[in-house]
Amino acid sequence: MKKKNITIIILLIFLFGLIFNNKLMSFAYPVYKNIAKTKIENNVKNYKTAYSKHFIIKYTDSDSKYVDLIIETAEKHYYDVVNDLGYMPTDKTMIIVYPTPYKMNRDFSLVKGDDAMGIYLVGIISIQSPALWIKPGQNLKEVFEKEGPVVHEFTHLIVDDIAKGNYPVWFTEGLALLEEYRQDKYEWGEGYNYNDKPYTLKQLTDDFDTLDEMLAYKRAFQVTKAISDKYGMSTIRSILKDLGNGMNLKESFYKETGEELDSFVLSVKG
Ligand SMILES: [Zn+2]
Questions:
Q1: Helix 233-244 crosses helix 22-43 at what angle (to 10 degrees)?
Q2: CA of 174 to the centre of ligand 1 (A)
Q3: Out of the domains of life, which is the source (predicted)?
Q4: Residue 14's pLDDT band (cuts 50, 70, 90)
Q5: Does CATH place domain 11-267 in 2.30.110.10?
Q6: What is the spatial distance between Cα 254 and Cα 257, in angstroms, rounded to a whole number?
Q7: Ligand 1 centroid, distance to 212 Cα (angstroms)
């Protein structure tokens, strides 16, 4: 695996989806999100703070040497991602730099052993210290920018804001990988092949977390890229707005393209 960048998205969103219907969720989720966000901010209130135009970086002493690089990378891609998805966050975005995976997992109540390079949750981006995954001798700046989690997690943040929590996990993962591709030409799962047929929409929607991880992310990327290739980023922007208004993804895709999403996914080459 070239890069370990499994974002743990939001079991909570899934739970909300089960409890509420889409419309209620797009109303209730932003409220819940603010409460949860404050709790996480409290956990790192003793961390040092650096500010840039659009970001707030929380970090510990051992990571002070990375702060400029993190800010530079985040700001460099800010407008590209914002313009692609058609939304600018109203507040500065917090990025927490965790010195150990243990601390990050604890603050996010992740299952032990599940070490993601970055996490997006409830309006906050968290990343592991570059010291934990970039080896001495590697080109720090280049590796962090191209393989690092910043563009990926920032995309999750914007998707979540526009769609108000109302989206399937595969769709936000696909969009995050699509943005990485558009920004850095980083192509997820290149060289990995499906043993069987590529995953269907139903599998992506219902079983994303239990499918083969590489291939599930690869399929999510292929499908979102195919949507942008055929219909353009403007259609993706419209779909995100529809989701934020409580429409589900299938309804929105049909409204914006006149095609059924199931058959569109089947038509995307694996
Ligand atoms: Zn992700």
A1: 90
A2: 8
A3: Bacteria
A4: low
A5: no
A6: 5
A7: 15
Using the mean position of ligand 1's atoms as its centre, give its distance from the Cα of residue 145 in Å. 16
Q: 10 Å Cβ neighbour count for 39?
A: 11
Exposure of 33 by Cβ count < 10 A (0-12 exposed, 13-18 middle, 19+ buried)? buried
DSSP 180-203: HHHHH---TTTT---SSSPPPHHH
For ligand 1, the distance from its centroid to the CA atom of residue 123, given in whole angstroms, is 14
Instruction: State in Å: Cα 119 to ligand 1 middle.
Output: 7
Residue 184, CB-side half-sphere exposure with 13 Å CA sphere: 21
Spacing, Cα 9 to ligand 1 middle (Å): 7
3-state secondary structure (DSSP) of residue 93: strand
* 266 phi-psi bin (left φ>0, alpha ψ -120 to 50, beta other): alpha
* Per-residue model confidence as pLDDT tens digits over 85-106: 999 999 999 999 999 887 887 7
Beta strand pairing status for 124-128 and 48-51? unpaired
Q: What is the pLDDT of residues 171-189, one digit of tens each?
A: 999 999 999 999 888 888 8
Q: Residue 260 C-alpha to ligand 1 middle, in angstroms?
A: 25
